[in-house]
Amino acid sequence: MATPVGWAQGGSGSVCLAFDQLRDVIESQEELIHQLRNVEEKAAHAKTKVLLAKEEEKLQFALGEVEVLSKQLEKEKLAFEKALSTVKSKALQESSKKDQLITKCNGRREARVSSQANIHGIYPSHPAPVSRAGFHPNFGPRLRIQASPSGPHLRKGLQGPGRPRK
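and the corresponding structure tokens:
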């Protein structure tokens, strides 16, 4: 068998020395690989830390916005409740006014009905009621549309039997 180059012939010491050197080289390479992996892990960890810091900053900003919007919403809610209570109180006042007017009108109507009942009796013999203007209810004032050179206009005209107003 041929002896590899660099090895001494016939001595087992030189073979052992080569194996020892080879083992040392392998161990140092494994140590370098281990250190390289540690450096890679540290770099990935640092990268993750930077990303985490950025996301934390975004989160803090979003939380600040949420707080500002919550305060604004609370202010708007209070303003809405105030406006709603104002509208409710106005509606209550208007309802009260309406009830008072209805009561007043009913009182006047009852007084008028009772006075007419006293004048005409329980069964009035008057054939048709007369309006305040003095026209028969079937021949009251009506609105007519008349065309003119400047355009159509609404015009009040009295239309009685056979007497249109121009």
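(Above: one complete record from the training split.) The chain has a mean pLDDT of 78.
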